[in-house]
């Protein structure tokens, strides 16, 4: 019994130590005159430089969900930078305000690009990051941001969108200009994404000779990675629903994708 208890104690201690190695640090930075407030998240037990991932949240802003996702990426050996797309870490607690904040960014592609690039610069300059291995991931609104950034030819190796909006507000890319490998992980039953938007995305990426993959998960709707999505959907009468199985499957797909393209 003593031997079993000692082994259990050691296991718990090791797990606690591993968890304690994940650091989340607030970062204040600038986009022109706008003050941005994001987070860098990494495992300080890892020696040497590692790939970095810019993370763009859902339209709500920097919530507990995106910070939890950043910790998961840190545990996988990445340094994650949670981007502030609205300035002063503004957040919304209702769809009207969230839509207004998201629109304020997406209506002007130059604003979207500048705010993403400001976050990318912060990530690339972090002491733990290899600036030659940078990717991006976005959720919902954030998915639209990172897909648009890939279309602009941004200096990114890999871009993934979870339940990504496909609102494309950047010009169709010219052949050979898309540097990033692209992965779209969406719910097949997501009413926010129209079939013609998929067709337009694929048409543009095919013409640009980009390397991409689109996966649609049957039965999954919008925000399937967010454990708070079901309650939010019920509260605001929106088609939002967390799906634990699809969440696991999509995360496994993204993990393979980033490992293949960033951990070279």
From TrEMBL:
Q: Which domain of life is it from?
A: Bacteria
Where does the Dienelactone hydrolase domain start and stop, copy by copy? Answer: 40-260
Q: Per its record, what are the GO molecular function terms?
A: hydrolase activity
Nucleotide-binding among keywords: no
Keyword annotations: Hydrolase, Signal
Q: Which InterPro entries match?
A: AB_hydrolase_fold, Dienelactn_hydro, FrsA_esterase
Task: Please list which residues make up the signal peptide.
Answer: 1-20
Name of this chain's protein: Dienelactone hydrolase
